[in-house]
Write a structure and sequence with these properties.
With 217 residues, this protein is mainly α. The protein has helices at residues 3-11, 22-30, 34-67, 71-88, 91-107, 119-137, 141-166, 171-176, 179-202. 75% of the residues lie in helices and 0% in strands. The chain has nine helices and no strands.
Length: 217
């Protein structure tokens, strides 16, 4: 594209037939080669995949909560979805799911009213679980295992500290927010590692941001 053409592009008041989508138009027009266009298209494609995967994982997580299974089944499965989100959509997608899920679940009546004081701490526990695991799992498979343990412990500390020092809840809820949370997070991590490994090895799904760049050990 020569200088005059570039000026004409910038001077338009609206798009015409053959122009790229609005979201990538400024990016493409500022460049002068197909390489820039390809990068813009790749960026938009990754953004669409990110939003789609995040929405699907959020819906699945809420569906798991709505089924009404016992807590010893629901807890590990919800944590499984958080770990999987960290692997396949990245830390921020997983954090978004971890924060939104308990809020929506409470608003929809999935979580009981006595748990309402714990909603911010459940969201925070979910977020730190995703962050800790997401930072470690990209370093390799052994690091991913260590990430599950570390993330589970940190989430347990967030929730148990909240019921011990911050929030006044019924004894049964306080008990449920302590040691059981450690076991459900560990169990969810174990399930997530198996599922994620199977998805990556079969090529069914690949981590969004980096492909499978994890080291074997």
């Amino acid at each position: 594209m020569d200088g005059n053409a570039k000026l004409v592009r910038k001077g338009r008041r609206g798009p015409v037939a053959g122009d790229p989508p609005v979201a990538v138009r400024s990016c493409v027009w500022e460049g002068q080669g197909t390489g820039t266009r390809d990068r813009c298209n790749t960026m938009m494609s990754k953004r669409i995949v990110f939003l789609t995967r995040t929405a699907v994982l959020l819906a699945l997580t809420l569906a798991i909560q709505m089924i009404g299974m016992p807590q010893y089944a629901t807890g590990p499965l919800v944590n499984t979805m958080l770990y999987i989100a960290a692997t396949f959509v990245g830390i921020w997608g997983g954090v978004a799911i971890g924060i939104v899920t308990p809020v929506v679940a409470f608003m929809r009546g999935i979580l009981p009213a006595p748990l309402s004081p714990m909603i911010p701490y459940i969201a925070a526990g979910n977020a730190v679980l995703v962050i800790v695991f997401g930072l470690l799992e990209r370093r390799g498979r052994l690091a991913a295992i260590a990430g599950v343990v570390a993330a589970s412990v940190v989430k347990f500390l967030v929730l148990s500290s909240a019921v011990r020092f911050v929030v006044q809840v019924k004894p049964a809820i306080a008990k449920a927010m302590q040691t059981p949370q450690l076991f459900t997070a560990l169990a969810g991590g174990a399930i997530a590692l198996i599922v994620s490994e199977a998805l990556i090895r079969t090529g069914a799904v690949k981590p969004l941001s980096r492909g499978d760049t994890r080291k074997p050990g």
